[in-house]
Amino acid sequence: MTRGTEKAEEFEELRPLLFSIAYRILGSVTEAEDAVQETWLRYEASTTPPTSAKAFLSAVVSRISINVLRSARVRREEYVGPWFPEPLLTDPYQDPERSAELADSVSMAALFLLERLTPLERAVFVLREVFGFGFPEIASAVERSEAACRQLVVRARRHMNAGRPRFEADRREREELALRFFDALSEGNVDGLREMLAADVQMVADSGGKAPQWAGGFFGADDVSRVLAALLPPFVRIGGAVEPHQVNGQPGAIFRDRYGKVINTWTLDILDGQIQTIRTVSNPDKLGHLGPVGDAWAVLRETQQVRRDPDRETGQPAQRGQGNRT
């Protein structure tokens, strides 16, 4: 076996870990994939075999991600409306010994909190708290002293703990509540929806100015339940599909138009048997990795027409997507 073949096999074995590191630092599937590809190019071009391929590649992808995040910060400051991470359906990296850390750290709420950290704090926190790297490896990865890295972790941990998200401990209960929620949603059951929503529930969207935007969002169980009950039955009637699916390790759904194209994704924060936050991502730039993206504006126009004229004929019979309920 040639060294080139060995490198390729080593890299492919570590690819899930490298992507997971990059995604948590960047909050972007496409940018994480680009960082992993750049890591491979640098590894392929290197001439000195590293003592540990895992340590070397993790360091390279971390440095690339830090640099990308620094430039991305400028773009995010000019972003139209709220900025959310790109939805991730499946985390490719699994480690039974760190399953809790991995699951918590990929949630929308946790990734949103990570945005408060500097790029260096974010990288150090991810490497230490999520993936359990030792300080010597982290220091090498970010090119800082071990003492400096320990201080960075302390600061990052303080910021994260101040707003650390809490979720329903029982995963099965979360999933069952989510399925009841989406059933009530498609039926337009206002009372059923209201019972599942926390009194101070908030519904917020990331459209990037490229899809329908809900102003500053909706707040409170009464307003949110009424809005949902008004919009979703017409959406289903025009052929829209609601597919319950894990999104960023949380109960959620993918919304598709009658042609199966992605319109948006939803994630639900559930605590104490109630939905606390509904986050939806509709910016088409953040949905392309999930498949062909539909025209959300056209779907909204048709939905509104059906609301105004309930007897209006639709293009195709309504459908209910089943999706992945695991």
From TrEMBL:
Residue ranges occupied by any RNA polymerase sigma factor 70 region 4 type domain in the UniProt entry: 111-160
InterPro entries for the chain: ECF_Sigma-70_Domain, NTF2-like_dom_sf, RNA_pol_sigma-70_dom, RNA_pol_sigma-70_ECF, RNA_pol_sigma70_r2, RNA_pol_sigma70_r4_t2, RNA_pol_sigma_r2, RNA_pol_sigma_r3/r4-like
Residue ranges of domain RNA polymerase sigma-70 region in the record: 11-73
Gene3D superfamilies per UniProt: 1.10.1740.10, 3.10.450.50, Winged helix-like DNA-binding domain superfamily/Winged helix DNA-binding domain
Biased composition (Basic and acidic residues): 304-314
Region span, Disordered: 303-326
Name of one Pfam family that matches: Sigma70_r2
NCBIfam families: PRK09636.1, sigma70-ECF, SigX4
Subunit structure of this chain's protein: Interacts transiently with the RNA polymerase catalytic core formed by RpoA, RpoB, RpoC and RpoZ (2 alpha, 1 beta, 1 beta' and 1 omega subunit) to form the RNA polymerase holoenzyme that can initiate transcription.
Name under which the protein is recorded: RNA polymerase sigma-70 factor
Domain of life: Bacteria
Family: Belongs to the sigma-70 factor family. ECF subfamily.
Keywords recorded for this protein, A-Z: Sigma factor, Transcription, Transcription regulation
Polar residues bias: start-end ranges: 316-326
